[in-house]
Design goal:
By secondary structure, the chain is an all-alpha fold. It is built from 8 helices and 2 strands. The C terminus is likely disordered.
């Protein structure tokens, strides 16, 4: 899903950078002084893991790529604000160290993966988990991860399509191509997110997650008991 340099028009670059920087500024404001110290090592571990996962990608339309994101797991485990910061760190390192994603497209990549890819799964899971029950929570994690992956890809397709003729394909090609490939990847993303979230709540049952719905998941999996 990483968009390289030379694929986006100046208006799209400007808009995506403005949105990305605005949301990131809000994220830093939200987490300032509100992060449990236990979350920092977990954030570092997950950032390193998904940095590696994202390096395994394959090419699709016009030079863009498809790959697992890890953004849904970051959003659900760390919460939307810390998750967005974590994914942004990944994207910035990939951009400047490995040229995976362009500097001019960094705002778009952050918007697609660190904002949409993180916050859509978090919001969907939070809404579904309120219904209670382990089944509802697992569905919320899986479907939320799927939606985050697909909607992030669709956003990238729209940005590319609106950048024609700088990008050689219009919306009629770019959006379906991104959506179809990432619908398949979205299923894998859902299963991976389920496994990662379940493993984390089992191994670290005492963590106070930003997403309060995980407290119920801990109880339903037997990870922690009510005092």
């Amino acid at each position: 899903m990483h968009i390289p340099d030379g694929f986006l028009s100046l208006p799209i670059i400007s808009i995506t950078y403005a949105v990305a920087l605005g949301v990131l500024a809000l994220s830093f404001r939200k987490v300032k002084g509100n992060v449990d110290e236990q979350m920092i090592p977990l954030m570092a571990l997950l950032t390193a893991v998904f940095f590696s996962v994202q390096m395994m990608n394959y090419p699709i339309i016009g030079g863009t790529t498809a790959h697992l994101m890890g953004a849904p797991a970051l959003g659900i485990i760390l919460g939307p604000w810390l998750g967005s910061i974590s994914m942004t760190v990944i994207l910035v390192l990939q951009c400047f160290l490995f040229a995976d994603g362009g500097v001019t497209a960094l705002g778009a990549n952050i918007l697609n993966m660190a904002i949409i890819g993180v916050m859509v799964p978090y919001l969907f899971y939070s809404l579904v988990s309120r219904r209670g029950g382990k089944g509802a929570m697992l569905v919320g994690i899986f479907v939320g991860a799927f939606l985050g992956d697909v909607l992030g890809a669709v956003s990238a397709g729209i940005q590319l399509g609106l950048s024609a003729p700088i990008f050689q394909y219009g919306l009629a090609v770019s959006v379906p191509a991104m959506a179809i490939h990432h619908s398949v990847i979205g299923v894998a993303e859902g299963f991976v997110t389920l496994m990662v979230v379940y493993a984390v709540v089992k191994v670290k049952p005492t963590l106070q997650y930003s997403n309060k719905g995980l407290s119920n998941l801990l109880l339903s999996t037997g990870g922690v008991k009510n005092e």
